[in-house]
Write a structure and sequence with these properties.
- This is GMP synthase [glutamine-hydrolyzing].
- This protein has 246 residues and is of the alpha/beta class.
- The chain has one domain: Class I glutamine amidotransferase (GATase) domain (Rossmann fold).
- It contains seven helices and eleven strands.
- A nine-stranded mixed sheet has the order 2-1-3-4-11-10-9-6-7, sandwiched between helices. A two-stranded antiparallel sheet has the order 5-8.
Length: 246
């Protein structure tokens, strides 16, 4: 019997960035088009998700910011966030395998009562991440070095976690780089699917979205190529290996 597929949820309206994200999750997760399906939430409604039909759910990053004033959000963003809130309620209740990447910190954090604000934004590019003691003991994060480089870039972050949530990683500028809810529900602030080529694709796609001054795009790419980012992808492969089920 074939393994139940994983589901990638995308909030990227830019096809080049969305396609690159899908290919990266397949590559680093050891998946293919049969074992990783995707729904582009900016193009269609989520619909009913029967968790029993999936091995796990991965939520990609994108330009949405959960903590923005609802009045400033587009109708599409408000719809997507309402759909994700309902899905996450079910995911958390079932302790169902979930990995939210970057935007996942905001969506999952909001669902569990974390404080999500702009106090700890980080510029686009490499960031040095440190595991907490809990991270070193976590089955997905334990294979990583205690300190490793990753790629990120975000306007909002979790500044305070509720007591029942386990913080797994931190960085100098951002206190919550990863956390876990229950045993199987995860979110990372950095991008576990992102290598330097992927970051350069994102820089081109989002240079006019307020993450950085557009004229600095090339210098950001040059700076990213000075760092070796190889460890975050271990999380994706570990997630797939741990939760793939037949």
């Amino acid at each position: 019997m074939a393994a139940a597929p994983f589901l990638l949820l995308s909030i990227r309206g830019e096809d080049d960035a969305a396609d690159d994200e899908y290919r990266a999750v397949m590559r680093f997760g050891g998946l293919d088009e049969h074992t990783l399906r995707r729904i582009g939430l900016t193009h269609r409604e989520l619909g009913d998700i029967d968790l029993s039909q999936w091995s796990g759910i991965i939520l990609g990053g994108g330009p949405y910011t959960v903590s923005d004033d609802p009045a400033a959000k587009s109708p599409t963003q408000r719809r997507v966030e309402a759909e994700l809130a309902d899905l996450l309620d079910a995911v958390i209740a079932a302790d169902f395998p979930f990995l939210g990447c970057c935007y996942g910190i905001g969506t999952l954090g909001a669902a569990v009562g974390a404080v999500i604000d702009r106090s700890h934004s980080e510029p686009v590019g490499p960031v040095t991440v440190d595991l907490t003691d809990e991270g070193r003991a976590d089955p997905l994060f334990a294979p990583l070095p205690d300190t490793f480089d990753a790629f990120g870039g975000h306007k909002e972050a979790a500044s305070v976690l509720p007591a029942h949530v386990t913080r797994l990683a931190t960085s100098a500028a951002c206190p919550v780089q990863a956390f876990r809810v229950g045993a199987n529900v995860y979110a990372t602030q950095f991008h576990p699917e992102l290598d330097v080529d992927g970051l350069c694709t994102r820089i081109d796609a989002y240079k006019n979205h307020g993450y950085f001054a557009p004229e600095t795009a090339q210098s950001l790419k040059d700076a990213a190529r000075q760092r070796t980012v190889i460890h975050p992808m271990t999380i994706l492969r570990g997630f797939v290996d741990r939760y793939a089920r037949r």
